[in-house]
């Protein structure tokens, strides 16, 4: 059931809530939309891996004025994607050719070296699950710490498979 109530103390039509959401008593659904300003590490990972998969020629710049149609991630709104795209840019993981992402669009030239490092460290689903589990147990994280935790797990895997201590 999707709520159609809108206004203060009410939820948007497409709102879906979980028990951890403030709007749970109002609509009893599953939600991410009204929590767009909360950092979602799964979305950050999805954006980085999607950007990495693009085949742009060296020096080419992707310019979009319609993030809703040009860059979709299942289960997320354009507003959430735009917000997280901006977080990724602020963290220095992507080169936006000097332009800041907007709520309607973005500019993308490439992943930076730090962005490639993050992508390489979180690509494996098992390592990603262990990384998230560790961050949750610790009770908090930053983007940099999450990337470092994933890198540490990859390092352990390399040592295990090669027998070489890094």
Topology:
Blueprint: H1 24-27, H2 41-53, E1 62-64, H3 67-70, H4 78-90, E2 94-95, E3 106-108, E4 110-111, H5 113-122, H6 125-138, H7 143-162
Helix pairs in contact: 2-4, 2-5, 5-7, 6-7
- N→C terminal distance: 53 Å
Distinct helical segment count: 7
Question: What profile does the largest beta sheet have?
Answer: 2 strands, antiparallel
Number of strands: 4
Number of domains: 2
Question: What string, H for helix and E for strand, traces the elements in order?
Answer: HHEHHEEEHHH
| Global shape | globular
Mean pLDDT across the residues is 77
Note poorly predicted spans. Answer: 1-34
Strand order of the largest sheet: 1-3
Commentary on this structure:
The protein has 166 residues and is mostly helical. The chain is built from seven helices and four strands; from the N terminus they run H-H-E-H-H-E-E-E-H-H-H. It folds into two domains: 1-35, no CATH class; 36-166, no CATH class. The protein has helices spanning 24-27, 41-53, 67-70, 78-90, 113-122, 125-138, 143-162, and strands spanning 62-64, 94-95, 106-108, 110-111. Strands 1-3 form a two-stranded antiparallel sheet. Helix 2 packs across helix 4 (78-90), helix 2 packs across helix 5 (113-122) and helix 5 crosses helix 7 (143-162).
Question: Keywords, please?
Answer:
166 residues; mainly alpha; two-stranded antiparallel ribbon; two-stranded antiparallel sheet; 4 strands; globular
């Amino acid at each position: 059931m999707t709520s159609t109530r809108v206004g203060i103390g009410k939820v948007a039509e497409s709102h879906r809530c979980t028990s951890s959401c403030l709007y749970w008593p109002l609509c009893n659904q599953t939600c991410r939309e009204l929590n767009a300003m909360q950092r979602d590490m799964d979305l950050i990972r999805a954006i980085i891996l999607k950007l990495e998969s693009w085949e742009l020629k060296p020096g080419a710049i992707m310019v979009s004025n319609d993030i809703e149609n040009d860059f979709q991630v299942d289960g997320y709104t354009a507003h959430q994607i735009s917000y997280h795209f901006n977080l990724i840019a602020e963290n220095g993981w992507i080169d936006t050719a000097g332009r800041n992402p907007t709520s309607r669009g973005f500019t993308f030239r490439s992943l930076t070296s730090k962005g490639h490092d993050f992508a390489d460290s979180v690509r494996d689903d098992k390592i990603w699950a262990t990384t998230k589990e560790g961050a949750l147990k610790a009770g908090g994280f930053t983007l940099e710490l999450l990337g470092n935790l994933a890198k540490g797990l990859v390092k352990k895997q390399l040592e295990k498979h090669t027998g070489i201590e890094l």
